[in-house]
Amino acid sequence: MDIRLVYDFESVNGFLYNSIDSCFIGDFWKKSFLPSKKNIDFLNKNNNKNIHTGEFNFTYFSQSKIHISKIDKWVLDKNTIFIYPIATNAENSYSFGVDDLYKTTSIIDLISNKAKSFVRKYDNFKILIYCGLEHEMPAEYFTSIYKCLQRNNINPNKIWIISNNFENINNNFKLLNKFKIPHSKKLNFLIYYEQLKNKANEMVDDTIKNLFVSEDDIVKIKEKKCLMLNRRLHWHRKIFLSLLSNSNLLENNLISFDLPYNQDKIDDNFIESIINDNYLKVDMFFKKNDFIKETFSIYEKQEIINGYKKLEKLQKKELDVSNLESIDGRYLELDNIELYKNSYFSLVAETEFFEKWNGYTTEKILKPIQQLHPFIVLGRPHTLKYLKLYGFKTFSNVWDESYDDEIINSRRIIKVFNLFKELNNKSDDEWVEILKNVKDILIYNRNLLKTYSYINDRIVIDNFKKYLKNEHIQENPKLLQTP
Question: What's the predicted TM-score (pTM) here?
Fold first, then answer.
């Protein structure tokens, strides 16, 4: 089977991104039609709006590119699948028409009329949307996409969305069932755990091999118990840090935070927000009874508030980076190796926690795997389950990992906190025994991680072709598989 990537605009510098608003074409002439990130940023700044679409190397899925004017004679060839690729440039609220600025326009509206006619008429013409390493997909994103497809008379089944969100498939069915949309007209989602490949690439890079802990450093007495790195203080991180502070658990661990560095724009009055349950994410699927289940108890709230008052006095704890803003947006960085050498385990504070429609993991969960470090996770439910889908092993034979199955957020954060206290109270001798028990798992996981590097890119391409042909569709179809 052949795959051809179809584009609307071709210039002396190659093909432009699909679904570019036509109002920008004149500006592209001024920039010699060079679709670089620098020029895209320039156009966005000068037009005071987002361009919706953006960069992604779709040649990863096919080297064959073709202008849309040239596919008429090929489209009847059933052995060829034509892909009209679009990337959201990590601006999904703009791209899917959710942001206030773009309530009536999305990247799907900006597909050329010719491409729309092909996708309506031919089964082997499909639209592929790449959503970036980490992307949100709340309920309103789904509804906006379906509405847009409806007004453009495009069957959602012709749309393939590549993301890092493990919950998109389940959430999609939830929405279909609620609004009684036929399952034959559903969006298609593929999971491309791209962080997994990127962190694997680091492991096979001989130029940085000295930045990773050696196997000889696993079973040793360490200076501190836990490593917990925090950058943006999302709700769950701030709450967890408050619980640690209340129990005086900040000192014997390697824990970083900076209260002023808070890009979530959490209410400045954190204490009032905890009292009023502002951390809850309410949407069309949120039921009144959920409030009772999801909120912290009065006693737990008081512990959080007391701990936060202590945090306010500290303001900041530094580890390897003093100015967190200086590394904001830095691409998949490596942490200081000494942090892992000097601690027994990692508390991975993932990006997502309360956001029920977001089920993705980031590079954070892969860092302790790189560094031969045992870990527990403060994240969405089933984070460990997702890792196991890729063949990784966790530590249920050593400590209780039932927190991973706890879907009620307030209970999950308390379960992780209690486990943290339990592990923090273990003696050095106990930790040496634990490290002996998990050493084989740590080595196995790191060796497995290496297999997901660019060396096995062919696996991704082969899986992509199978899914396009509707072969071997799984519950959570993964582009990356265990080799």
Answer: 0.89
